[in-house]
Amino acid sequence: MNDINEIHLCDWPDCMEEGCYPAPKNPKNLRDRFHFCLEHVRAYNKEWDGLKGFSENDLHSMRTGATWDRPTWKIGLNSPSKTAAETIAGNFRDPYKLFDEDTAKRQAAEQAEAKIPAEIKDACALLNLPFPIEPEKAKQQYRKMVKANHPDLNQSNPEKAERQLKEINLAFQKIKAFLNKKS
Ligand SMILES: [Zn+2]
User: Fold this and answer.
1) pLDDT tens digits, residue range 84-110?
2) Maximum CA extent, the chain
3) pLDDT-based confidence at 76, cuts 50/70/90?
4) Residue 15's pLDDT is what?
5) Straight-line distance from the first to the last Cα atom of the chain, in angstroms, rounded to the nearest whole number
6) What is the rounded average pLDDT for all residues in the chain?
7) CA 10 to chain centre
8) CA 54–ligand 1 middle distance (angstroms)
9) Mean pLDDT of the 15-24 span
10) Domain boundaries in the chain?
11) Ligand 1 centroid to residue 64 C-alpha, Å
12) CA of 134 to the centre of ligand 1 (A)
């Protein structure tokens, strides 16, 4: 990875694969792109015709699960009859309910943390990633760390940056493998 702009992760929510396949975000702006893994670029392309009426903001909200008020839009992930609302409901956690269940949730998180292998804990510490591990947060931290430690931006000590970059990559791979095993 010599070019900082070549580092892409799949933009699909919660997917931690490499995003090797660019896809335009909007039919009117073909230059601005998502990057997806093979599985998700296929899913995205399949939906392309159905997406033409949506703005980039709509798309982004839907992809990130920030909105859930488009129950008629079919996302067609695994099952073609699955609506966006159903799909997004899977990702969405009611903040008020969360508040009520705060204690239970914290205990669950502590229990989950206790079961996490030491090397995964170390990897999370390196990426400055809190528990429980959220894939989107992991991607975000990984991108941030890669940028901050890119040798091109650390000319005073590129060897050290290179070394750190390797550790960051390794940590991310471990976290990814851990999350994949769990789900
Ligand atoms: Zn993907």
Assistant:
1) 555 545 544 444 555 556 788 778 778
2) 55
3) very low
4) 94
5) 29
6) 77
7) 7
8) 21
9) 91
10) 4-92, 107-182
11) 13
12) 15
Task: Report the distance separating Cα 145 and Cα 168, nearest Å.
Answer: 7
Which pair of structure tokens corresponds to residue 141? 């931290």
* Cα(44) to centroid(ligand 1), Å: 10
pLDDT reported for residue 58: 67
- Output DSSP code: residue 12: S
In CATH terms, is domain 107-182 a member of 1.10.3470? no
- The mean pLDDT value for 154-183 works out to 91
Under 8 Å between Cβ of 127 and 175: yes
34: pLDDT strictly greater than 60: yes
> Rounded to an integer, what is the distance from CA 163 to the centroid of its chain?
24
Q: How far apart are CA 112 and CA 178, in angstroms?
A: 13
- 97: tokens are 């309910």
pLDDT higher than threshold 50 for residue 136: yes
Tokens encoding 180 = 């994949």
Q: How far is the CA of 21 from the centre of ligand 1 (A)?
A: 10
Would you state the structure tokens that stand for residue 82, as one six-digit string?
């699955």
Dihedral sign (CA 134, 136, 141, 143): positive
Ligand 1 centroid to Cα of residue 119, in Å, is 25
